[in-house]
Amino acid sequence: MSHRLVLACSLSALLGSVSAQAATVQVLVQGEAGQALADAVLLLEPVGGKPPALKPSAQVEIAQKGRRFVPTVTVVPVGTKVQFPNQDTVRHHVYSFSPAKKFELKLYVGRPENPVEFDRAGVVVLGCNIHDTMVGWVIVSDTPWYAKTPAAGRVTLTDVPPGAYLLRSWHPDLPAGSTGVEQPVTVGAADLALTARMPVK
After folding, report:
1. Going by C-beta distance under 8 Å and a sequence separation of 6 or more, which residues neighbour residue 126?
2. Separation of alpha carbons 183 and 175, rounded Å
3. Who is most buried in 24, 89, 101, 174, counting CB within 10 A?
4. What is the dihedral of CA 98, 72, 108, 141, to 10 degrees?
5. Bridging pattern class, strands 23-30 and 146-148
6. Model confidence over 12-57: pLDDT tens digits?
7. What is the biggest distance separating any 2 CA atoms in the chain, rounded to whole angstroms?
8. Is the peptide bond prior to 46 cis by the omega test (within 30 degrees of 0)?
């Protein structure tokens, strides 16, 4: 057997071992009364370590439709470029003053020429300079273990290596400026089921 083949077999065994140790983390997000929360964002952040490099998502859109941002909450990995098509018959002026991303798309209809790149982790609040009731959020993640809850309030994060993490839970009904509710989590070789309770009515 050649040295190259031995190396390939060893690497394959190592990767298989790492994959076998990775766990699944299931999280149920609830409000103050124990109700399931939709549109909550979960971020599992390694403690004392750097998360793996992220690949930006492709073809992400946040439309303006019926004078609303659709979807209202979007979560993307760092480096993702987002299009903001205006599907209304009136013009919109989309902007954000959030520290994680400041940008402005001046009065337009249809599809802007260039997407907006979200290159810094954090919570980005969207607004329209013409229609004050329009509000949306982009949560930019620098960890690969993230998800947005459906109506049932439950999400599953897969391939999580053992270690210490901080589970950050965010919801649009939290006070303005909040980066989320934090709780420490230890992941072992076995799958894990958690409940994240948030101060949301």
Report:
1. 62, 69, 94, 95, 96, 134, 135, 136, 137, 138
2. 18
3. 101
4. 50
5. unpaired
6. 333 344 445 899 999 999 999 999 999 999 999 999 888 888 999 9
7. 70
8. no
Tell me whether strands 146-148 and 192-197 are parallel, antiparallel or unpaired.
Answer: unpaired
Indicate the length of the chain as a whole number.
201
pLDDT in tens, 57-99: 999 999 999 999 999 999 999 999 999 999 999 999 999 999 9
Contacts of 40 (CB under 8 A, 6+ apart): 29, 148, 149, 153, 169, 170, 171, 196, 198
Tokens standing for 129?
A: 């300079």
Q: Exposed (0-12), middle (13-18) or buried (19+): which is 96, by Cβ within 10 Å?
A: buried
Q: Are β-strands 80-83 and 60-61 bridged in parallel, bridged antiparallel, or unpaired?
A: parallel
Mapped onto helix, strand or coil, the DSSP state of residue 15 is helix
Distances (CA, A) of 44 to 8, 47, 155, 163: 32, 9, 12, 11
User: 3-state SS string over 163-188?
Assistant: EEEEEEEECCCCCCCCCCEEEEEEEC
Indicate the pTM of the whole model.
0.89
C-alpha pair distances (Å), 131 with each of 67, 70, 85, 115, 128 = 7, 15, 16, 21, 5
